[in-house]
Amino acid sequence: MTALNSILIFAAAFLAVFGEAALSAPRNLLGAQVDLLPVLMVYAALNANITIVALLAIFGGLWFDALSANPLGVTILPLFAVGFVILSQREFILHKLSFAQIVLGAVACAVVPALTVLLLLTGGGQPLLGWGSLWQWLVMTAGGAVATPVIFAMFDWCNHALGYKPRTETSFRPDREIHRGRK
Amino acid sequence: MFKQKNYLALGAVILVALLIFSLPPRATGRLKMAIGSLFLPLLGLASTAQQLPVAAADAVLSRRELLQLAENLRRENDQLKVMALQTGATARENDQLRSALGWQRQVPWKLKLAKVIMRDPANWWRTVEIDLGSRDGITDNLPVLTADGLVGRVSSVWPTHSQVVLLSDPNCKASALVENPAHDTGVINAGGPLDNSFVQLTYLSGSANLKPGQGVITSGLGGIFPKGIPIGQVVDSRPVEFGLYTEARVKLFVNLGALEQVWVLLK
């Protein structure tokens, strides 16, 4: 995990929150806005350390709540809960497999809004809920499932394009080369 | 050691969340404003990006279409001028009659045009942000409308922008009047989470005689919305609580999903 990767995660989280607030096309087309913060949390939990996961939960949650009618800070705990669980189990997850990424993205995108709404209801809030919320939840889950491999591929590409390539050591040494035949 | 670090982070995040929850509302509002203002530089970029397709469409419009459009607008402008003259005469007559009866004079509406810059990223709220703030004279609970009808009210104000809670949000309730002979009054409540164009008109009396197509306007009760702002049309109604009340579904005149510009009604 390089510093560049950490910066990219936070930049992506900032742009994702802004995009969700500025672009209403998914909401108009599908009836729900897909949240990309849980997807980024999945990526961070599988590739970064606990500090990045904690900071992403705090800053991502605060950015999201600042643009929303949510009470400030309500998204922090659901995001961190998802990140914490994935991070603690990441040795057992085959995170290079697209199928694993899709499942993790879907679960994260289903759990984060559910926990957030639960926290809102516990705090006495009156979010807009109904049978249509089930559809919205499905759209968010499916959207997260689709977006996760894309985000992983995007980060891999960015790391490949912007990061330093690791120096590969070979056993070949030119000074020890045996020249055969006559010179 | 690694696990201990994990649990330390868990404790730290819980502490930060609890600290933010325990802040007084004023401090939370300021913090929200400070964090929200981080996104302001991106807003210009977003509006430019949104206007690019419009500009591209304008560039390919033919001269004939533009002339036709200008002609239509000129005609509409003339009609509106005549209507404004008639309305002005009616308003003067109304003022004279009100003064003759000793009633308080009606204050004309003072409106300010605002652009919708962002929508709530969460699916469980229906709010938008507009580009007018406290430095433009905006305060809490000001009514927001379009030429078609009521949109909602201002819920939070920051110096450069404000949050408007829409009629389809559970936190925006308005007292409404049905335009029928009995002038039945009720309360506008949020509709479903999927359909932005319908709201519920609740707490109507059990004997209310509602018919589809009847208009619904603000009743002026409650002190936030002045009387007479169009809200929508009754679609259907049904008795609730064993006939104690009647509830009606109202189709809003304003398309809340496609708001671009709104008017804020100043006091």
Task: Describe, in plain words, how this protein is organized in 3D.
The complex is a heterodimer of chains A (183) and B (267). Chain A is mostly helical. Chain A is elongated. Chain A has 7 helices and no strands. Chain A has helices at residues 3-22, 25-30, 37-47, 50-66, 76-88, 98-122, 131-162. Chain A has one domain (3-162). The model of chain A has no long low-confidence stretch (mean pLDDT 90). With 267 residues, chain B is of the alpha+beta class. Chain B folds into 2 domains: 1-106; 112-267, Rod shape-determining protein MreC, domain 1 (Thrombin, subunit H, Beta Barrel), CATH 2.40.10. Chain B is built from 4 helices and 12 strands. In chain B, strands 1-2-5-4-3-12 form a 6-stranded antiparallel beta barrel. A 6-stranded antiparallel barrel of chain B has the order 6-7-8-11-10-9. The longest helix of chain B has 39 residues, at 63-101. The radius of gyration of chain B is 23 Å and the shape is globular. Chain B starts with a helix and ends with a strand. The mean pLDDT of chain B is 88. The chains are: A mainly alpha (183), B alpha+beta (267). At the A-B interface, helix 1, helix 4, helix 5, helix 6 and helix 7 of A face helix 1, helix 2, helix 3 and strand 1 of B.
Write the layout of secondary structure elements.
The complex is a heterodimer of chains A (183) and B (267).
Chain A: H1 3-22, H2 25-30, H3 37-47, H4 50-66, H5 76-88, H6 98-122, H7 131-162
Chain B: H1 2-21, H2 25-36, H3 40-59, H4 63-101, E1 110-119, E2 127-130, E3 143-145, E4 150-157, E5 162-166, E6 174-178, E7 185-189, E8 198-205, E9 215-218, E10 230-240, E11 245-252, E12 261-266
Antiparallel strand pairs in B: 1-2, 1-12, 2-5, 3-4, 3-12, 4-5, 6-7, 6-9, 7-8, 8-11, 9-10, 10-11
